[in-house]
Structure to design on (266 residues):
């Protein structure tokens, strides 16, 4: 049996204040705090690597790092801190957003790729996959993979689900589109070491945002049972609401709630 390990999920890294409002910064981490989190992992003896490296060569004390969306802050603020420490991460990129204001360019992605970062798919346009018919969902996934393959000269095999939303065709859609590893938004530790040729490996990822204390951060990357139970109960409640009202309406309501509350845990 493989040892349990955690995959952390970040979104953006900002030069200043983050994680205090309903805006995109709600899911961000300040650069200074991000750097201190990397140092905390190193001090506690954890190897920090991309998801793909963690799967290919599992180690007893490892943490996989991943980023979603391809925000410019990931390149300008997060990447330098990783490179400075000899660490790597997986950057899941929405390919239609590459080069837009606020997002990394292909040149930036190639620079990160050359430095040992893993650049993988976050679909083409970041849709709610469950609201698409299976063929349209397949086209979203395949076209994103092909764009990354062509731009980076690689064989893209990993995908992160936008909004944690699964397509109606399930794992068959992932497999048909050429993916073997799928990052979810489900909280928890992972035990599987690799994906087989006919299997799509689903990876649990733990979100890091705002300003968690060192103790809270440690509970996240060590896979605290208490924190995991609390998070999964919360996930179950929110997923029930999302299923009842639909993912798009749920996302609108969540944004309105954060606006009214000035932040909070969504």
């Amino acid at each position: 049996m493989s040892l349990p390990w955690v995959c952390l999920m970040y979104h953006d890294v900002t030069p200043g204040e983050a994680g205090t409002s309903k805006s995109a910064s709600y899911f961000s981490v300040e650069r200074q705090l991000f750097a201190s989190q990397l140092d905390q992992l190193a001090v506690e003896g954890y190897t920090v690597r991309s998801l793909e490296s963690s799967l290919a060569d599992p180690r007893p004390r490892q943490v996989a790092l991943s980023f979603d969306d391809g925000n410019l802050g990931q390149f300008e603020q997060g990447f330098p801190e990783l490179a400075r420490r000899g660490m790597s991460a997986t950057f899941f990129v929405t390919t239609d957003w590459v080069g837009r204001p606020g997002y990394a360019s292909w040149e930036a992605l190639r620079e990160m790729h050359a430095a040992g970062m893993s650049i993988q798919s976050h679909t083409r346009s970041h849709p709610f996959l469950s609201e698409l018919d299976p063929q349209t969902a397949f086209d979203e996934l395949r076209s994103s993979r092909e764009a990354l393959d062509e731009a980076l000269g690689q064989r893209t095999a990993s995908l992160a689900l936008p909004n944690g939303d699964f397509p109606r065709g399930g794992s068959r859609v992932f497999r048909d589109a050429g993916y073997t590893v799928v990052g979810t938004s489900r909280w928890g530790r992972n035990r599987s070491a690799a994906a087989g040729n006919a299997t799509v490996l689903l990876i649990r990822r733990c979100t890091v945002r705002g300003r968690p204390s060192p103790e809270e951060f440690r509970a996240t990357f060590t896979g605290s049972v208490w924190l995991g139970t609390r998070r999964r109960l919360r996930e179950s409640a929110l997923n029930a609401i999302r299923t009842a009202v639909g993912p798009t309406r749920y996302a609108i309501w969540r944004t309105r709630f954060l606006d009214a509350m000035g932040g909070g845990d969504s």
User: Anything to note?
Assistant: The two ends are 34 Å apart (CA to CA).
